[in-house]
TrEMBL record:
This is Uncharacterized protein. Keywords: Membrane, Repeat, TPR repeat, Transmembrane, Transmembrane helix. It comes from the Bacteria. It comes from candidate division WWE3 bacterium CG_4_9_14_3_um_filter_43_9. The lineage of its organism: Bacteria, Katanobacteria. The keyword Magnesium does not apply. PROSITE patterns: TPR (PS50005).
Amino acid sequence: MNKKRAIFLLIFAGIAIYSLSLFNGFVWDDEEQVVNNTLVHTIANLPSFFTGSTFNTGGTGTLMGIYYKPLMSFFFALIYTFFGPQAFFFHLFQVGIHILNSVLVFWLFRSFLVYLERSKNSKLKTSAPADPPSSRWNDWLAFSLALLFLVHPIQVEAVVYVSALQDVLFFCFGMLSLRAIAKNQNNLRLFLLPAILFLLSLFSKETAAVLILLTLVFVLLFKKGKLLFSALAAGGAVLIYAFLRFVVAKVFFFHQDFSPIMQAPLPQRLLSIPKIIFVYLKTFFFPDRLAITQHWVVVNPNFPDFFGPLAFDFLFFAVLVVCGIWLYQHSLKAFKTYLFFFLWFVFGLVLHLQLFPLDLTLAERWFYLPLVGLLGMLGIVVYSLKCKKVLVLLLLACALPLATRAISRTTDWKNGLTLFSRDIAISHDVFDLENNYGVELFRAGQYDEAKAHFEKSTAVAPNWWTNWNNLGASLEREGNLISAAQDYQKAIANGDYYLAYENYAGILAKQEKYEEAKEFLENKALPKFPLNYNLQQMYLYVKFKLQPPSDQK
């Protein structure tokens, strides 16, 4: 094993495991962020990506939403410009970035193992070159850890879900910035490269702030002479990002309380933290029950939901602390490296522990960053043990069943009907999963089953808008126009959903309420969605019905 062979094997393994996903379609938010998002259909709209959020559906003319990810929109537009709405090329790009990230993870682990090997040689006063290569088994160790990062089934969501492109993007640019700082010879004139990479990472996802913080921690622990250099790069990137996000795009941090965790007060969210950590760790060790969306809140501190997970979390972190103490007693440099990965793991987790409410209780793609910290700690412990060779072989052996599970999971993402039908058996009473499954059933002509899932979604999340619109569409199809109109109005009141505006205007026209339809279109619908073609056509139709043109000779 050497560096080149390791990189080749990682590329080969990535292609082998994720090749089936290249033929998957667009799923869930992919339709709204790519297929129906007209602004990302051409790269000519590049300036608009930095002046709004990520959604442009319904004809608003601007990118709307609560996130600021202009780089994701840029890559969507770049791919769409050359290949159109072909999901294959979106998946190909995302899989390629994930494989590159695995190579960067290999570089990270190998660099630290070389550092520790050099320190050991220096301590033993053995003759060694100034920059000795790591031993064969150290290369195997770095490779095995990077391979686990590549193939772990918890990664599938971040790799095959097109709307999760931001997760692999921010990590890629963040790792490149860390590498640029580690390799730079403290030349202040060259701070521009890591600053640009920091900025690109932030433009991909807000979580990049954690990687920037970890880079500064890395400098403090291992490269103190580069502190000024790194602070300038990080500070400059953050200031530019903040100016463009808050001043230019005016995209602030706020949330809409349509999911259970968003509605939960802080004490309930704090009660949920032990179970959130437990589910992430359980999924890491036993990735059997994977699901795209999970909405739950721990309301009462019972044993299954609070005390049991809390005991497991306490035991797990106690083991981490004991390992840290043992490393501190044996090697200060190994301990510093372990501490760095421990902080990597903790910082990556904290951002997703609902101290600030997010739109999901947890998501597998949110473990993309913490996973590196967990694997890094594991690698340092294995390196420091005498049975390193046996443990490395064991890690390599673990990669095979994980890869098999990952391949199986990629097939779940073939299309929306396949994914939602399988995940709904795991995630029960989840409002968006019920709604999404209902949409796929409706498209498949299973109208009664679809309606049942829409009704369940509205019962679980009455403050959402998409489910009310879809329930209204089911009722309209049955001919129940009055109830359908009421549901469309609920969707409009909850979230200004453009399809609800279209459907409500259409149902007014069906009821021949042309004056009411005209007033609704003029005063409410078209001012919000001035570029919406369907609303424009409906407005012309209503005006024609109210004032038909005179007969012409």
